[in-house]
Design a protein that fits this description.
Elements (H helix, E strand, L loop, with lengths): L1 E7 L8 E5 L2 E8 L2 E6 L10 E3 L2 E3 L6 E3 L15 E2 L1 E4 L2 E6 L2 H4 L14 E6 L2 E6 L2 E5 L12 E3 L14 E3 L10 H4 L8 E4 L5 H8 L5 E4 L5 E4 L2 E6 L9 E6 L2 E7 L5 H7 L4 E5 L16 H25 L4 E5 L3 E3 L5 H6 L5 H7 L6 E2 L7 E3 L4 E3 L5 H4 L2 H11 L2 H7 L8 H10 L12 E8 L6 E9 L2 E5 L8 E5 L1 H10 L4 H4 L5 E4 L6 H8 L14 H10 L2 H8 L1 H9 L15 H7 L4 H16 L1
Parallel strand pairs: 13-15, 15-16, 16-17, 21-22, 22-23, 23-25, 28-31
Antiparallel strand pairs: 1-10, 2-3, 3-4, 4-8, 5-6, 6-7, 9-10, 11-12, 11-26, 12-13, 14-24, 18-19, 19-20, 20-21, 26-27, 28-29, 29-30, 31-32
């Protein structure tokens, strides 16, 4: 740890106060006689928190935090990260992690391979090529995604059958990254690398598609995939199952942030990079447009703030990851179904031109690629296709293009029209969620789920509640405070019968929502994002304290010996990449959590996840 002088207590007359330490913004807050320093990084997806109207607020998704304590007002299980402070002789000092304590990776060498090219095929699909070796990331090329809701914008100039990758990286399960119709075109002997999420869904789904060389990568472990080519994946600060990947090619270091946000802990692990790629526009969610409790003015305000917040986040990403090159990507899509046309008209999004304008007088190189365009890092040249940006981003032209582009036959291949689901099937599915380990983290919530079937007997309601980590079915019609979710029967049926992520419906704008309170219930949504089932994980709450003490006293090596891969996956979720660490046979879990600065809320979640293993 390093001790950093903040200033004399008496000099601060206004609370909270914004400070900058080592180029990073912090907030100094006071609650009664207690003074603490808070990180400005949002615990949701790494946006930069601002102080406005008496609260802290992240403009990316409108999470709000108490201005005195940093506790989240919209999600009770989250808080801004506190930094340890001490007061000596009237002077305030912050205790910060020193770079030497955490960074053990190779720094950027500024060596750029002469033959390296990076091509954007579509959305988040990049192709890295050097020495006739091709690495493809998150391939979505053939047809729409999210149950037919999204289409590419602009249209890719190639499809899956045209490409011959030597390796594929897939960051997460959303169908704009894991796209089965595109993956169907590839040789099933190609090695595919995915994050080793505890739910193992990516690995199982790829094997079901016929891929025989699926590598589930432990977080933080550097893996060689070809001569002088390495990849390392990290789990971000986001609550969702997503991943950041560091790609190293002959000394050139490329960090693919995707839409996973920022993470100072990972930045210290990674060190400086030569380039980053990150999402640059909102719209990859039905929020706020599909949420009925918000007024039209409130929706417009949220979207405007989100547009601005994402541009700020790009700038902060360049600073945090110490790079001069940004590829804005993973935002090249539109809603094309006529049913979604009202959302298209109301939506506010950033364009590549907005990104260029934002960075116009800043020392950052924006590598503004559109589909089919290629960047040569060594010469810093872009091979252009010749798009007319003015026409591309003109709202009238875009709406006309979407109307003409929509193809009912192609849409029907993605939309689950042949699926019917009964109320009892939905009830059985919901009760099975009690076997998902992450249900123990869910907020207490009451939900009315409405199936909007067009045929007689297919429209029904199911009411359920989650309390103390257990889901129960409730009588429909009782007045309660909570969430209403409404979706077409065939969409709900696809989730239940095919075990796909609920995000496919939410992000595909197929659902409408109503929320009675200003609480986001983020852990409830995480439960639905990618359910996976184990033995019943409900824990005897009376034994938790003793279990926690027992866990704390075990060394990291003991945990690995006793529980193996499951422990490695869980620790990796919290930024603890301990496998092979020389301290693992000496350091207890308690000391590891302390030395890595893990928040108390995160510690409690970690204990609960580990306790599930011990109970089983």
């Amino acid at each position: 740890m390093k001790k950093v002088l903040i200033g004399e207590v008496a000099q601060f007359n206004t609370w909270p106060t914004t400070l900058e330490i080592d180029g990073q913004p912090f907030f100094l807050v006071r609650e009664n006689d207690s003074i603490q320093l808070l990180s400005s990084t949002c615990p949701h997806m790494g946006g930069t928190i601002c102080h406005t109207d008496g609260v802290f607020e992240c403009p990316v998704h409108m999470w709000k935090f108490d201005e005195k304590s940093g506790k989240c007002l919209t999600n009770k299980n989250q808080s801004m990260k506190p930094i340890d402070t001490i007061i000596e002789d009237g002077m305030i000092f912050a205790l910060l992690e020193s770079e030497e304590e955490e960074t053990s990776v190779k720094k950027s060498t500024n060596q750029i391979p002469v033959d390296l090219s990076i091509k954007l095929h579509s959305h988040a699909c990049l192709e890295f090529e050097t020495d006739n070796f091709r690495l493809l990331t998150d391939p979505w090329l053939d047809g729409p995604c999210f149950l037919g809701a999204w289409t590419h914008y602009p249209t890719p100039l190639t499809n899956g059958s045209d490409l011959r990758p030597d390796a594929i990286w897939i960051s997460h399960e959303h169908s704009d990254h894991f796209h089965e119709p595109t993956l169907a075109h590839f040789n099933k002997e190609i090695p595919v690398y995915v994050p080793d999420f505890p739910n193992q869904r990516l690995k199982h789904r790829l094997r079901a598609l016929g891929f025989s060389r699926v590598h589930a990568m432990p977080f933080g472990e550097k893996i060689q995939i070809a001569d002088q080519i390495f990849i390392t994946c990290y789990e971000p600060i986001s609550l969702w199952n997503d991943a950041i990947v560091l790609i190293e090619i002959k000394g050139f270091r490329f960090l693919n942030l995707n839409d996973a946000g920022l993470n100072p802990h990972i930045a210290r692990q990674v060190g400086p990079v030569d380039a980053i790629a990150s999402a640059f526009s909102p719209g990859a969610s039905g929020f706020p447009l599909t949420w009925g409790h918000l007024s039209e003015d409130e929706k417009s305000t949220i979207m405007r703030k989100s547009c601005s917040g994402l541009l700020t986040m790009l700038e902060n990403a360049a600073s945090l990851y110490q790079t001069k090159n940004i590829i804005p990507f993973a935002s090249h899509f539109e809603l094309w179904n006529p049913e979604h046309e009202p959302f298209v008209h109301k939506s506010l999004k950033n364009s590549l031109d907005d990104v260029l304008k934002y960075f116009e007088n800043k020392p950052i190189r924006v590598v503004d690629l559109l589909a089919g365009e290629k960047w040569i890092p060594e010469s810093d040249e872009i091979e252009r296709i010749g798009y007319n940006r003015r026409e591309l981003y003109d709202p009238i032209n875009k709406h006309l293009w979407l109307k003409n582009q929509f193809d009912q036959e192609i849409f029907m291949k993605s939309y689950p029209t042949a699926i019917d689901i009964s109320r009892q099937e939905v009830i059985s599915y919901l009760l099975k969620l009690n076997e998902v380990p992450e249900i123990i983290f869910s907020e207490d919530v009451e939900v009315l789920l409405t199936s909007t079937g067009k045929m007689p007997g297919l429209a029904f309601d199911v009411s359920f509640r989650i309390a103390n980590g257990e889901l129960t079915i409730e009588e429909v019609g009782l007045k309660r405070t909570g969430i209403t979710i409404s979706m077409p029967n065939e969409i709900l049926g696809s989730i239940v019968q095919k075990d796909i992520s609920w995000d496919e419906a939410f992000i595909g704008y197929w659902c409408s929502f109503y929320r009675d309170s200003d609480i986001y219930h983020a852990d409830f949504w995480r439960l639905l994002q990618a359910p996976y089932y184990r033995k019943n994980p409900r824990i005897n709450r009376l034994s938790q304290l003793n279990a926690k003490n027992d866990i704390n006293k075990m060394t990291i090596a003991d945990l690995f010996d006793r529980y193996g891969d499951d422990v490695e996956r869980i620790l990796g979720r919290y930024g603890l990449y301990c496998m092979g660490c020389y301290r693992s046979n000496q350091e207890t879990l308690e000391l590891a959590l302390l030395s890595h600065g893990i928040l108390q809320e995160k510690k409690e979640r970690l204990y609960q996840e580990l306790d599930v293993l011990f109970v089983e």
